[in-house]
Design brief:
The complex is a heterodimer of chains A (about 270) and B (about 210). Chain A is an alpha+beta fold and about 270 residues long. Chain A is built from ten helices and five strands. With about 210 residues, chain B is α/β, with parallel strands linked by helices. The chains are: A alpha+beta (about 270), B alpha/beta (about 210). At the A-B interface, helix 2 of A face helix 2, helix 3 and helix 4 of B.
Chain lengths: ~270, ~210
């Protein structure tokens, strides 16, 4: 009896310790055939051709509608593929070479907002990726681009010119630089101001910002140079005449002069 | 008596080289058997990665990518225009040598033949094309010259990797392969599609022999 129990126990122990074998049925063996993808490709081809034909037909209709109802600068913009103020919805779709499927269109009263249906494949015009288009009474009033500095809005024609775009991008970079300066990251702030100075070359306040950051970053020679450039640009006589409106700039000028004196003395 | 034993031994020893020679001659004259077989047939010999695995991966990735929502989404946003894909790097992170070119070519062929996706020459391939175009600017007639700076920029890059996990004990071996393919938006870095195929092989070696 004792021997039997011992043997059974030993067998149970062996069974517990040995690895478990799972007998799975093979799903593919020698001699089987790998299915061809011809059917998948053919189905995709058929689907794509059908969808493309529908989209192209709609795009053609929109383009015809847009060009039939446009005039002057708007016609040129549609042809260039660029959204401009004053366009109608079909003209926006024609300019962006899209159909209604690409947009989520919301209407409220006399206002319409076109937002990309998906951010993963957002529509774009010749300038960049559009983040939204706002229409009032059926005409584009404002539109915005998603850019690396953030959203850039265009609400009047001057903002869509090369100079306007540069100014807007410089403003965004200055905002970013100010943010870094406030957080104490002077190198990053200087980098943004430097980039902004390429786009906006005649901005004395930008020069003042750069000078201040260089001063704070203990780079006195460069700071002195920038303060001088700021003063040179300001053209003192004109500022004196302008009065209160330029009070802040005048204060900045006083500060710049003081700093030049201090930095010069330190340099001696 | 002793002399006759030595004679027998010498005669027997003389047989050995003759037998070996005969065996060698037989082996040399025996014809090798080669047959053309269906490329779609499954032929597993060693259990390592082979053409069947490559085909299965290609089939799965073609099916998944051509039916994925990314394609429809792109076409809807671009009035039926096909997205442009460039093939990036497919890393082999397994311990085995796995040629990735066959299934990438299968995938490219499916993209181009279906018309659903436009494929542009990869970084490795375009060098030769650019050199030819440069050469044409000097040597080809004006009307047949390929224009420069007219390349199509890709919207997405196809990247991927192959990983494998092996488990072995005595005569049994299990190999698991996982193939991941991703389409990455070149502007936003967003992964718009992820395809995956898994293969698990159970290999049982015979008790005797290799």
């Amino acid at each position: 009896m004792y021997r039997t129990t011992t043997i059974l126990g030993a067998i149970a122990l062996l069974a517990a310790c040995s690895s478990k074998k799972v007998n799975e049925q093979p799903i593919m063996e020698n001699g089987d055939r790998v299915p061809s993808t011809e059917v998948t490709v053919a189905v995709a081809q058929e689907q794509v051709n059908r969808d493309r034909a529908i989209a192209e037909q709609r795009q053609g209709e929109l383009m015809a509608d847009a060009l039939a109802t446009c005039s002057g600068a708007i016609c040129e913009a549609v042809t260039r593929g660029e959204v401009v103020i004053g366009m109608t919805t079909p003209q926006v779709l024609a300019a962006t070479r899209t159909t209604e499927d690409a947009w989520s269109i919301r209407q409220s009263g006399n206002a319409t907002v076109l937002a990309p249906a998906t951010r993963l494949a957002a529509p774009s015009d010749a300038v960049g990726e559009l983040a939204l288009v706002q229409l009032r009474d059926g005409r584009v009033m404002t539109y915005g681009y998603r850019e690396s500095q953030g959203m850039r809005l265009v609400s009047n024609p001057s903002e869509a010119t090369t100079a306007g775009v540069a100014r807007s991008r410089a403003d965004a970079l200055i905002r970013e630089g100010d943010d870094y300066a406030a957080r104490g990251d002077l190198d990053a702030a200087l980098d943004r101001y430097d980039r902004a100075s390429v786009l906006s070359m005649d901005d004395p306040m930008l020069e003042y910002r750069i000078a201040t950051v260089l001063d704070k970053a203990l780079r006195p020679i460069e700071a002195q140079l920038r303060y001088r450039m700021f003063l040179h640009r300001m053209e003192l006589e004109r500022i004196d005449a302008v009065g209160q409106a330029y009070a802040n700039i005048a204060a900045a000028m006083v500060h710049a002069r003081e700093r030049i004196i201090v930095l010069e003395r330190q340099g001696r | 008596m002793v002399r006759s034993d030595v004679g027998i031994l010498a005669r027997r020893l003389a047989v050995v080289p003759v037998a070996l020679l005969a065996l060698g001659a037989t082996a040399a004259c025996g014809s090798k058997q080669v047959s053309r077989i269906d490329p779609n047939s499954v032929t597993d010999l060693s259990g390592r990665w082979n053409d069947t695995d490559s085909r299965l991966v290609a089939n799965a990735l073609i099916e998944q990518s051509l039916t994925g929502p990314w394609l429809n989404r792109y076409m809807q946003s671009h009035a039926g225009e096909a997205p442009t894909v460039i093939v990036g790097t497919f890393r082999n992170r397994s311990m085995e040598h796995i040629p990735v070119t066959p299934f990438i070519r299968d995938l490219e062929a499916a993209y181009v033949n279906s018309g659903a996706v436009q494929v542009v020459a990869s970084a490795d391939e375009r060098g030769e094309v650019r050199a030819e175009r440069e050469d044409q600017q000097e040597n080809a007639s004006a009307e047949t010259r390929a224009r420069i700076r007219q390349e199509t920029g890709a919207s997405y890059m196809l990247q991927g990797d192959i990983t494998s996990i092996e488990d072995e004990e005595n005569r049994e071996k299990v190999i698991y392969y996982q193939i991941d393919a991703t389409l990455v938006d070149l502007e936003s870095n967003a992964k718009v599609w992820i395809g995956q195929h898994r293969i698990k092989k159970y290999i049982e070696r015979p008790r005797f022999g290799s």
